[in-house]
Amino acid sequence: MSAEKLSFEDFEPGRRFALGPKLVLAEEIIEFAREFDPQPMHVDEAAGRASILGGLAASGWHTSSMLMRMMADSYILNALCEGAPGIDLMEWRKPVLAGDTLQGHSTVLEARPMRSRPGLGIAKFRHELENQRGELVCLSENSVMIRMRPAPGISASPETTA
Which residues share a beta bridge with 87? Predict the structure, then answer.
């Protein structure tokens, strides 16, 4: 990560950020599923093979969480992000199976200053994750609020005193 964080002005439409790679382990699929989505195809390899998914499969919510982590590692933690107002699209196109390697990209679709919040902009992203066979497994779109670059001589984040 660079010392200077990415600001809204750095998120021009068309800019792409690489995501991954991320090897998906059976143990993490089971651990996530036991806590959040304990359906048989997510917690038991035999049940996964017997299902329409064809093997021990990550929950769609687990896939979304892995996408979020890849986004954080790629650009969010190195940017002046202020969160997201929601998700516009989340599609789980193919099962993510134990042993798959996920990678992809996030692309800035549009960026505009927020009228309701001076100093913030909103960038809309499209995220695409593929497995090692080049199959699209997850497609998502959402907007992120990002602080604008401060005017010269103004601090990007106010200092607090104890």
Answer: 142
